[in-house]
Amino acid sequence: MRIDASVYTKEIYRHNLVIAAEFLEHVDDDMAVLDNIREGTAIILTLPSFDDPAHVRFFQTRKQLRYRYYTRIDDMKIIVISKWYVCSGIVKYSKPKLANRLLQTRSRVGLQFVIKKLGFLRRRVVQAAKRHMR
Questions:
Q1: Is 81 part of a structural domain of the chain?
Q2: Of 11, 12, 17, whose CA–CA distance to 125 is shortest?
Q3: Hey, is 37 helix, strand or coil?
Q4: CA angle 71, 15, 64 (to 5 degrees)
Q5: 19-36 per-position pLDDT tens digit
Q6: CA distance 107 to 23
Q7: Is residue 39 part of a domain?
């Protein structure tokens, strides 16, 4: 099924988890895409740290990435894998928490850190699914 992610549709709004892999860097209005995802939905993003003619944007630092999306994604976790940022969080529509803006992140991560983050994401997905089932 093909849908326009920048326009509200039931297909976008009903999901509990959204994975945007190699996607948002190619979209002019990435914020409109995030605005159409239901609040409380778990999200996983992968974004490049390098420029390419096909990219509308890229991020040289985690700080740039966090600054771009902190108003739309709460509790954002960012890890670096090679030349890519892998981010997870929960979609929100409220003002960002001060703690989220002040959160310091590591520049490089090991395998144990990645495993810990994946466990965190799994718990968030399970929590979102339980809320949805109520």
A1: yes
A2: 17
A3: coil
A4: 25
A5: 888 889 988 888 888 888
A6: 23
A7: yes
Q: Which amino acid is at 65?
A: L
The total of structural domains in the chain comes to 1
Q: Would you state the pLDDT for residue 87?
A: 92
Residue 113 in 3-state DSSP? Answer: helix
**What pTM did the predictor assign?**
0.61
Q: Does residue 4 belong to any structural domain of this protein?
A: no
Cα separation, 8 vs 6, whole angstroms: 7
In-domain check, residue 27: yes
Count the alpha carbons within 13 Å of 127 in the hemisphere toward its beta carbon: 11
- For residue 72, what is the DSSP state? T
Which single residue is written with the structure tokens 């999200």? 43
Span 80-122, pLDDT tens digits: 988 889 999 998 864 444 444 444 444 344 555 555 666 666 6
Range of the domain at 85: 10-133
